[in-house]
Amino acid sequence: MAKAKILLVDDDPDIVDAMQLVLEANDYEVVTANSADTGLRAVEREKPDLVVLDVMMDRDTDGFHVAYQIKNPHPGTELAKTCPLPVLMVTAIGRAKGMKFSPQKDAEYLPVDEYVEKPIQPAVLLEKIRALLEAKAKQRQGK
Known about the structure:
Helix content is 45%, strand content 16%. By secondary structure, it is α/β, with parallel strands linked by helices. It has a single domain (5-142), classed as Rossmann fold, CATH 3.40.50. Helix 1 links the parallel strand 1 and strand 2.
């Protein structure tokens, strides 16, 4: 069985390095992007199985825009061939800006599958990713 490919989109190299080490040690293939634009291009190019996404990058709302495009790609585009994908948002926006979000109540403008505040413990990161990949696999089987 092929390794699941995880795309990490975050502008903090320390966070990316830490998550990449954890994921690769647990047999995931990891690709990275450090901005919203490079993240969207990486989705098209790399065709990941799941995206781990930060919110605050070049702009405080970059992650929201990326999540929206992944979950609502324009038909006929390269992005639409890969998307929608499971998205795990891992961010410090709640602590940094005092904003609180929930994928359940804020799905209209926060179209992600899971939302976790930084810092995230390695075990929680792995648990969330496994659950999202399992749900994706079940969804495919149901089609």
